[in-house]
UniProtKB/TrEMBL annotation:
Cell location: Membrane
Keywords: Glycosyltransferase, Membrane, Transferase, Transmembrane, Transmembrane helix
Protein name stated in the entry: Peptidoglycan glycosyltransferase
Residue stretches making up the Penicillin-binding protein dimerisation domain: 61-205
Keyword Nuclease among record annotations: no
EC number(s) from the headed UniProt entry: 2.4.1.129
UniProt keyword annotation of Membrane present: yes
Molecular functions per Gene Ontology: glycosyltransferase activity; penicillin binding
Gene Ontology CC: plasma membrane
Organism, as annotated: Thermobaculum terrenum (strain ATCC BAA-798 / CCMEE 7001 / YNP1)
Bilayer-crossing regions: 20-38
Domain Penicillin-binding protein transpeptidase: 249-556
GO annotation terms (biological process): cell wall organization
Enzyme class of the recorded protein, top EC level: transferase
Length: 582
């Protein structure tokens, strides 16, 4: 029997393979359609934006910086208009010639300018901070492809006045040190934008036709500083430092009731307008808040306050001061070595007796003495709103570095380091009736006439009862009016104060000829209008606080009486003084 075979006309792939290929092709088609849908519909706006960005250049525009005023509205820091010189390189016809013409006018090497003008970019900065005079000279050259953009630069119209308080701005207009640094986020504002675009042919559109989003100016800052009081403080400080051939110094003037800083002067100083010319950049720091030193006898007020508050002494408590004290293998001497038999606590302050101060601290004991010292804020920052505040050095009994002799020496301001702002803040608590206030230099911040931040007087804590504070104020008044050294006495006005003369450690040893001379005082005593600290570093004319710092306080106080129109609270002294002169 024969077999009949039938053959299909399809000589290609078997049926199942054909179906497989068709399904694969269909899958590819679906993926392609899906991708096109995703790109054109879902991602269309995003990709269009990316394409647009590829033909754009966005550059920030610096905002005008906020101004800084004193408490009376006097401008301490403002802005001036300067100019950035820029170029659109594709429009500069002869880069080499342009560079040669620009170089002497802007102080930039011609090669550096030419290299920038040859770059294939839409915009390039050639120079910044050009004056109006420079701008006009360059415009007279009629160089195609270059232009100017107004900028703001910081200006300090009062020169070096309050330099360490203000700080300065660097070449990027960013605040450094002082208020400029501490409040930079408020002062700096928000940058704007300039958007450059290419035309369809790939050419960059000229600057004049570019989109500009203007910047938002910074906020204005008003200080507690009084420019007039600041001027007086700097005048007295500079005079004293130069007369005494001193290394430097600081003066702080404060409202004792609010903690507002009315003046904060330091010397040597600098002009923030020309910070780039300063060789010794240590002057940028503010020693009134950052420099810790041994306060010497001005600290005896704190010791006496602690003793009065604890009730271990009264102003009339008496001791037999032999002029020296042997303890723990050391001998403590009074500054002049003199004994003071039957000496009252008021007389301890009048005589500035180290032995008497040590008596008070030992009556208190370690716990009560150091607790009150910390209560007054020593060993911690005051919280003043300025950059660079130091904590000082306070070694407590719990520290391995503490020695029992510290209880004696710390009582008269040796072996402890404080900053000027710590000391005046603590002493202001005595002057105002017992309240420790937080010191501050910025009163408010405004934007477009609206207050966005305001500092108000802040009580940290009560450190003395009003009765104890008034008792101590009376003792300090007696020190000035009846003490052996009445150099701070001002006829007609009551003054409470204390001198200080602290030896400076040199190579681990105290050198009696290298000192810090100081005076802290307030007036009038009953309701002080001001409290001031005078600190003179390493004077060579005289080493004593009574001969260096106290006269400076007296000179400053007289200026403040006149400026604030403070009437005499002891007019009978004026008559007596006049009679004696006659």
């Amino acid at each position: 029997m024969s077999t009949i075979r039938t053959y299909s006309d399809n000589h290609g792939l078997p049926g199942w393979r054909l179906k497989f290929v068709l399904w694969v092709l269909l899958g590819f088609a679906l993926v392609l359609v899906g991708r096109l849908f995703y790109l054109q519909v879902i991602q269309g706006s995003f990709l269009a934006s990316k394409a647009e960005q590829a033909h754009q250049l966005v550059r920030e525009i610096d905002p005008p910086r906020g101004r800084i005023y004193d408490r009376n509205g006097k401008i301490l820091a403002s802005n001036i208009t300067v100019y950035r010189l820029y170029a659109t390189p594709q429009y500069v016809e002869d880069p080499e010639s342009a560079a040669q013409q620009l170089s002497p006018l802007i102080g930039v090497p011609a090669k550096e300018i030419a290299d920038k003008l040859k770059q294939g970019v839409p915009w390039v900065s050639i120079a910044t901070r050009l004056t109006t005079e420079q701008k006009e000279k360059i415009e007279a050259l009629h160089i195609p492809g270059i232009g100017f953009e107004p900028q703001t630069a910081r200006a300090y119209p009062n020169g070096s006045l309050a330099a360490q308080v203000l700080g300065f701005t660097n070449f990027e207009n960013v605040g450094s040190y002082g208020v400029e640094g501490e409040y930079n986020n408020y002062l700096s504002g928000e940058p704007g934008k300039m958007i450059a675009e290419q035309d369809p042919a790939g050419n960059w559109i000229p600057v004049a036709q570019r989109q500009v989003i203007p910047p938002k100016p910074g906020a204005d800052v008003q200080l507690t500083i009084d420019a007039t009081v600041q001027y007086y403080a700097e005048e007295v400080l500079q005079k004293t430092v130069k007369e005494q051939k001193a290394k430097g110094g600081s003066i702080i003037v404060m409202d004792p009731y609010t903690g507002e800083i009315l003046a904060m002067a330091s010397y040597p100083t600098f002009n923030p307008q020309e910070f780039y010319n300063v060789r010794n950049t240590s002057v940028f720091a503010n020693p009134a808040i950052s420099s810790a030193y041994e306060p010497g006898s001005t600290f005896k007020i704190i010791t006496m306050a602690a003793g009065l508050a604890a009730g271990v002494i009264t102003p009339d408590t008496r001791i037999d001061d032999k002029g020296y004290l042997n303890v723990y293998g050391y001998t403590i001497h009074n500054w002049d070595g003199r004994p003071h038999p039957n000496e009252s606590m008021t007389e301890v302050l009048m005589n500035s007796a180290n032995v008497g101060a040590a008596y008070v601290s030992t009556k208190l004991g370690e716990d009560r003495f150091y607790r009150k010292v910390q209560d007054f804020g020593f060993g911690a920052k005051t919280g003043i709103d300025l950059q660079g505040e130091a904590t000082g050095i306070l070694v407590l009994p719990s520290s391995k570095n503490w020695s029992p002799i510290n209880l004696y020496t710390n009582a008269y301001g040796q072996g402890i380091a404080v900053t000027p702002i710590q000391l005046i803040t603590a002493q202001a608590a005595v002057a105002n009736g017992g309240l420790l206030m937080r010191p501050y230099v910025v009163s408010k911040i405004e934007r477009n006439g609206k207050v966005i931040k305001e500092n108000r007087p802040t009580v940290v804590r009560r450190v003395l009862s009003r009765q104890v504070a008034e008792t101590l104020k009376s003792m300090m008044k007696t020190v000035v009016e009846e003490g052996e050294y009445q150099v701070a006495r001002i006829p007609g006005y009551s003054v409470g104060g204390k001198t200080g003369t602290a030896s400076v450690p040199v190579n681990g040893q105290y050198d009696p000829n290298v000192t810090i001379a100081s005076f802290i005082g307030y007036s009038p005593v009953k309701h002080p209008k001001f409290i001031a600290l005078i600190k003179i570093d390493q004077p060579k004319g005289s080493r004593w606080g009574s001969e260096v710092a106290a006269p400076a306080f007296k000179e400053l106080a007289r200026k403040l009486y006149t400026y604030y129109n403070i009437p005499p609270d002891q007019p009978e002294q004026i008559e007596t003084s006049s009679g004696e002169q006659g």
